[in-house]
Amino acid sequence: MNVGIYARVSTDEQAREGYSIAAQLHTLNAWAVVKGATSVTEYVDEGFSAKNMRRPNVQRLLADCMSGKIDMVIVWKLDRLSRNLRDLLVTIEDIFTPNHVELVSATEQIDTATPAGRLMLNILGSMSQNERENTSQRVIATMNDLARQARHLGGKPLYGYSVTPDGFYIVNPKEADAVRKAFELKLAGMGYGHIISMLATSGHLTRSGKPFSKNTLCDMFRNPRYKGTYIYNRAEAKRRSGARNNRASKSEAEIIRIEGGMPAIVSKEVWEGVQNIMRGNNQSGGRAHAKHVYILSGLIFCGCCNAPMPIKNMGRNRDGSYRRAYYCPNHCQSPIPFASADTAIVDYIAHVAQHGDLMERAISIAQSFDAMQKSDAEELVEFERAEIAKLETKRANLIEYVAKVGAAAGAVFASEAQKLTDEIDSGHKKIAQLLSQKGDIDLELIRTRVREMTDIKNATAEDQKIRINQVVKQVIAYPDRFDIALRTTTVGDPSSIHAVVVMLTLGR
User: Fold this and answer.
1) Is the dihedral of CA 35, 40, 41, 45 positive or negative?
2) Which residues face 9 on adjacent strands?
3) DSSP type of residue 239
């Protein structure tokens, strides 16, 4: 096994805490021997802060990990790699995990090879999650302000409309004719096939030059924008796979809806008439049946052929209920009763989560990162204050010079004085922002994650499915066992953050 040991120390840390490079390398080499290293490569960044990843030897280490030269990375503490938790988690997700590189922290007993540790780092990911949520909220607030002005907020405008340079909707005459004709034909009782044919015959096609489809027309007829109602934030967020169901809506309280916010292509009367027709077509739906929650649906795969194992009815029990099981479509193995499989995985997660000091270890590391972030903020405040002092000196010297040479020079230097004033004001705003920060670490969120996993057996099936999807990447089913792959990290886009946790690994 090829091991890379990474050591880093900044000058002030060595003076303050005694983290000498020699001491780190001595301990890390010993750990490499314990871990069974056949070769050890040292990567040292001396005199560098870990506020970001722009360090020569950490970049060399990551490059070697991606090229397959390193199987395990050992550090003195996690903060040797980065003092920014999100940078650390992204490094694990984007570089270590896909290249099968294990991460070991010598003094924190963290080892990404153990399931208990992966679960613990999953919980720590709540800190990075909270940071992204704060960023997301700021973006959402800006987008909502623009939406309340009924502006177009990116992407292709709805068929039938164009967008002005300042972001407002206007009617696209040619496309609007197709929309009006489609509504008129539907209101006249025409079926989808006839409407598609009539539109194509009259030269009305989609933007890609193809005839309209039934689904496209159905979406068009149900879209209230065509009657002049501006709508923003209606569609549900993307799923973890990246797909989005545009027909699934958020709660009305989350939707921004402005009547008359955009030009209407059809009248309200025509739009409502089409809705009545479509509601009438849907009255013959079948009786609704309650659906069972299959916890491993989408997660379980056959260990023999790697095919996904969906749920299938395997006949009826004596009481008339269905026998449902996960089955291999290639018949590599016997179907697995869903209750047995689901229970086994829930029991496993509960067992892992009950690791003795899981909560204490997660909180300890979280507090360590929180302290480092606050320390970095204090350093930035001092830097900004020093910069402001320099700017104020320049401005005072400029004012003194103008006073000496007379009013004639005032106009020449006025713009320079204003520029200095603006830079000083900007510095004060940065300081105020830094002082107002309360840190990105939400310890209560971490505690909640631990409790959710520890108490998973007592949760409802729906909640169990959510929690399992947060921590389990894949379940591989064999005739005699399950192999469970826990997620390492997931740093997703802001819209999916509420469903994401990030796993690190605690070892012994």
Assistant:
1) positive
2) 46
3) P
Asked if 335 contacts 325 with a C-beta cutoff of 8 angstroms, the reply is yes
**Tens of pLDDT along the chain (508 residues)?**
899 999 887 655 554 454 678 888 888 888 888 788 899 999 998 877 766 678 889 999 999 999 999 999 998 887 788 777 777 777 887 888 889 898 888 877 677 777 776 776 666 655 545 555 555 566 677 777 878 888 888 778 999 999 998 889 999 999 999 999 999 888 877 788 888 988 988 889 999 888 999 889 999 999 999 999 998 877 655 444 444 455 556 667 778 889 999 999 999 988 988 888 887 655 444 444 445 788 888 888 999 998 888 888 877 777 777 788 998 989 999 999 888 899 888 888 888 777 667 677 777 777 776 776 677 677 777 888 888 888 888 888 877 766 666 555 555 566 677 788 888 888 888 777 766 655 555 667 677 777 777 888 888 888 888 778 777 778 899 988 888 877 654 333 322 222 222 233 222 1
* Token couple for 119: 């679960």
What residue spans of 265-357 are helical by DSSP H? 268-281, 338-353
10 flagged as catalytic? yes
Could you give the CA distance from residue 139 to residue 371 in angstroms, rounded to a whole number?
A: 27
Distance CA 399, CA 53 (A): 43
Would you give the DSSP letter of residue 308?
A: B
pTM: 0.41
For residue 483, give both structure tokens.
């192999």
**Which listed residue (10, 49, 136, 267) is catalytic?**
10
Residue 364: partners with Cβ closer than 8 Å, 6 or more residues away: none
Query: What pairs with residue 104 in β-bridges?
Result: 74, 111
Backbone angles phi, psi at 405, to 5 degrees: -85, -15
Q: Which residues contact 214 (CB under 8 A, 6 or more apart)?
A: 192, 193, 196
Q: How far apart are CA 80 and CA 72, in angstroms?
A: 15
What one-character DSSP code corresponds to residue 92? I
Q: What is the dihedral of CA 185, 190, 192, 198, to 10 degrees?
A: -50
For residue 410, which amino acid is it?
Answer: G
Task: Return the HEC string of 400-432.
Answer: HHHHHHCHHHHHHHHHHHHHHHHHHHHHHHHHH
> How far apart are alpha carbons 382 and 435 in whole angstroms?
11
